[in-house]
UniProtKB/TrEMBL annotation:
Pfam families named among the record's database cross-references: DctQ
Membrane disposition: Multi-pass membrane protein
Official protein name in the record: TRAP transporter small permease
Transmembrane segments: 15-37, 43-66, 86-107, 127-149
Length: 159
């Protein structure tokens, strides 16, 4: 599971780099067209929002992989090792349950008729394309959390 998580994380990092690069290029181009050529590009705002949403879900998944979320650990820092390990396992099981629930409902949402026929205003692409990142992000996060859980259970480390 750790190998799969590492492979997904490598892909996510590359994808995030590409998405951030294109977002920067589009925004810079938009500013140049708006202020120097006096011809604003109407589609850049919408594409930038889609890219930012993709970056957010991919980054959130990577954050779970590397355990970089903010947390209050005063309780965990002051309990014995075994209790800390059990609390970490319970926390990871709750996160896995939440991610599976959100993955189920996001897939149901993406495949609904309301999304299937919806199109973006400026670029006229089907909205299921930008919305696909929601289940993708939850699926990747599920793999990362499951890999972290297996590490805690196998190695006995609850860091």
């Amino acid at each position: 599971m750790n190998t799969l998580s590492a492979g997904i994380a490598k892909f996510e990092k590359g994808l995030a780099i590409v998405l951030i690069f294109f977002m920067a290029v589009f925004m810079t181009t938009s500013v140049l067209f708006r202020y120097f050529l006096n011809a604003p590009l109407s589609w850049v705002g919408e594409i930038s929002i889609f890219l930012l949403i993709w970056i957010t879900f991919i980054g959130g998944s990577l954050g779970l992989k590397y355990k970089s979320q903010a947390s209050v650990t005063i309780l965990l820092d002051n309990v014995p090792f075994l209790v800390r390990k059990v609390l970490h396992i319970i926390g990871h099981l709750i996160m896995i349950s939440f991610l599976l629930l959100m993955l189920y409902y996001s897939m149901k949402w993406i495949t609904s008729s309301g999304v299937s026929y919806q199109r973006a205003n400026s670029v006229n692409i089907p909205m299921w394309i930008p919305y696909t990142v929601v289940p993708l992000g939850f699926a990747c996060a599920f793999v990362h959390i499951t890999a972290n859980l297996t590490t805690i259970v196998k190695e006995g480390e609850a860091k």
